[in-house]
Amino acid sequence: MSGGVESRQARAGAALAAPALLLIGGFFVLPVAAAFLLSLTDFDIYAIADRDRLRVVGLDNYAALLRDRLFWTALANTTVFVALATPLSLALSLATALAVTAAAVRAASLFRTLFFLPVVTSLVAVAVVWRYLYHPRFGLLNYLIGLVGLSPQDWLGDARLALPALVVLAVWKNFGFNMVVFMAALQAIPATLYEAASVDGAGARTQFARITLPMLRPTLLFVAAMTLIGNFQLFAEPYVMTRGGPNDATLSIVLYMYEQGFRWWNLGYASAIAFVLFFLVLVASLLGAGLTRGKGAVQ
Amino acid sequence: MKRIALHLGLSVAAILTALPLWWMVAASFMPSGEANAFPPRLWPSRPTLDHYATLLARVQLGRAALNSLLIAGLATACAVAINAMAGYAFAKLRFPGRERVARLLVAALVIPGQVAMLPLFLLLKQLGLVNTYWGVVLPSMASIFGIFLVRQYVQALPDSLLDAARVDGASEWRIFRSLVLPWCRPILVTLGLFTFMGAWNDFLWPLVILSDSERYTLPVALANLVGEHVQDTELIMAGAVVTVLPVVALFLALQRFYLAGLSGGALKG
After folding, report:
1. Within an 8 Å CB–CB cutoff, is residue A265 touching chain B?
2. Considering only residues 203 to 222 of chain A, which have any Cβ-Cβ distance to chain B shorter than 8 Å?
3. Could you tell me which CATH number the domain at B60-268 has?
4. Could you state, in order of their start, the residue ranges of all structural domains in chain A?
5. Crossing angle of helices B61-92/B218-228, nearest 10°?
6. Domain A14-292 falls under CATH 1.10.260.40
7. What are phi and psi of A56, to 5 degrees?
8. Which runs of consecutive H residues, i.e. helices, occur in chain B?
C-alpha cells in the first residue's frame, strides 16, 4: 500500500470514477432517498410555492393509497399486464430464437434483423401507429380478423379488450430483444452435448427438455426478470393510446404516478406510489435472484 | 418438409412483425383520407410528400427533430466519456472502496428510474434547469449499465500493457487517453448507440421536464400532434416515420455493435 505506483493508481482511479459517481449520486441515489422522505409528507402544489406549507404526515400517504380505488385499479391493471405480457414475450422470443438458430434456416440474419426492428423504434411512435391499427372501422387488425371470419372489435374502446390490446403491442415491441439474448445463449451450448444425446438415441423433444432448457435456465431467469421489471413500468402505451381508459381499464401504476405528481402536483402522494412500484419490482427481482442462486447466472 | 414448415412459420412471423411498420410508411405517403379507407390499403394510390412538407412548415416537427438530435447527441457524448472513465477505473485501477461501491451500484440497478423522478424535478427546478436541454440530459450522462458495460470489456485488456506504459513513464491520464480509449473503441460505439437510442426514444422524462413546445423532442411532439390532429392519419404517420427512421437507420448501419452489446453477456454485469 505504501508504493508510489499504487497510490498514484488509487488517485487516478478515484478521479476517473468521480464524475460518474457524483452524477449518479446527485441525480439518482439522492433523489431516490429524497423520494422516500417526500412520500412521508403532504408536499403538494401549495408547497411548491411556499415550503412552509409542507407537513410531515408519516405513513398517511400509504394509508390513503390503501383506500384509493383508482390506485387499486392501477395496481390490478399493471399486475394483469405484467402477468400476460411477460410469459407471452418469453415464449415468443424463445420460439423465434430456436427457429432462427435452427441449422437448416437460410437468411437467419435477415429474420433476426426483422424481428429486432420494433425494439429500436420509439415506443410513442409505434403506440401511435398501433392506435390506428386498432381502429374499430378502418383498422388493419379488424380487416385481418375479418378475413378469417371474426367480427370487428372496438379494441381500445372496449374495457375488456383494451389492456390485452396493449399487451399485444408490448410483446410485439420487445420480443426481438429477448430473442437476441436467447440466440447468444443457444449458440453458447456446446454442440457435443447434442451429438452425444443423438448417439444415445434421444429425440428432438428429449434434447430440448434435457439439454436446451437446463442450459438456458440462467439466461431465461435473467431475461424474465428484465422483462418483468420493464413491464411494471408501463406508461407510454396507455398515455398515447387510451389515456388510461376506457373506464380506467388501462390505468397503470406509472401513469397514475405521473397524473398525481405532474398533473395534480401531489408530489408526496405520487412519491408513495413510486415507492410501491419500487417495492413490487424489488420483490420480483428477489424472487428471481432466489431462483437463480447457485446456478452461476449472476456474477 | 420440416424445413419448409420452419421457413413458412418464420416468414409469416416476419411479415406480421413488419406489417405495422410497413403500414406506417405506406400511410405516410398516401393522399389525405386514403389511410381511413376500408378495406385498408397497403400501398398509396398516388404517393405524395405533402404530409412531410406540412410537418416541416406547419407543425414544426423539424424543430423537434433538431431538439432530439441535440439532446441525444449531447447525452451520447457525455455518457461515452464519463462512463468510459469510470468503467476503466472500476476494471483496472484500485481505489479505496471500489468493490463496495461496485456492489452498491449493482444493487441500485433494480430501482426503477421513475422513483427518482419527482425529487429530481424539484432539484432541477431549484437549479433553474426545468425546460432546458441540460435538464433532459443530466440524468442520462452517467449510467450504472454503461459503467459495467465498459468495465466488463476493459477487464480483458492485459495488465502487462498498462504496466509497460507505466514503466515508460506515461501518466495515468495519458495511459487512459492513448492506450485504454483506442483499445475499447468497439464497446464505446456500442455504448454510444445504446445511449443515443435511449435518449432519442425516451418519453416520460422529456415530457416532464420540457414545458415549452419549442423545445419538445420528437416523441413528445408526436404525442402532442396526435392530440391535435388525430383525424389526419397520414400526417400523424409521417410524424411517426420521422421519429422512427433516424434510429432505425442508425441501428441498421451499426447493428453488429448493438447486438454485440446484447450478446456478449455484458448486460449481466
Report:
1. no
2. 222
3. 1.10.3720.10
4. 14-292
5. 150
6. no
7. -85, 125
8. 2-28, 50-57, 61-92, 98-108, 114-126, 133-137, 144-154, 159-167, 172-175, 181-183, 185-201, 204-209, 218-228, 233-253, 255-263
Q: Are B33 and A134 in contact (CB under 8 A)?
A: no
Question: Taking a C-beta distance cutoff of 8 angstroms, is the pair A162, A242 a contact?
Answer: yes
**pTM of the entire structure?**
0.92
Checking ipTM against 0.85, whether it exceeds it is yes
- pLDDT of chain A, 299 residues: tens digit per residue: 445 777 888 999 999 999 999 999 999 999 999 999 999 999 888 888 787 788 889 899 999 999 999 999 999 999 999 999 999 999 999 999 999 988 777 888 899 999 999 999 999 999 999 999 999 989 999 999 999 999 999 999 999 999 999 999 999 999 999 999 999 899 888 888 988 998 888 888 888 888 999 999 888 988 998 899 899 999 999 999 999 989 999 999 999 999 999 999 999 999 999 999 999 999 888 887 776 654 444 33
Q: For cell 450522462, what's the residue?
A: B141
Q: Does B120 touch chain A (CB under 8 A)?
A: yes
| Domains in chain B: boundaries | 1-48, 60-268
If contacts are CB pairs under 8 Å, which of residues 37-56 in chain A contact chain B?
38, 48
Q: Which residues contact A28 (CB under 8 A, 6 or more apart)?
A: B108, B111, B113, B116, B139
Dihedral sign, Cα of residue A94, residue A99, residue A101, residue A106: negative
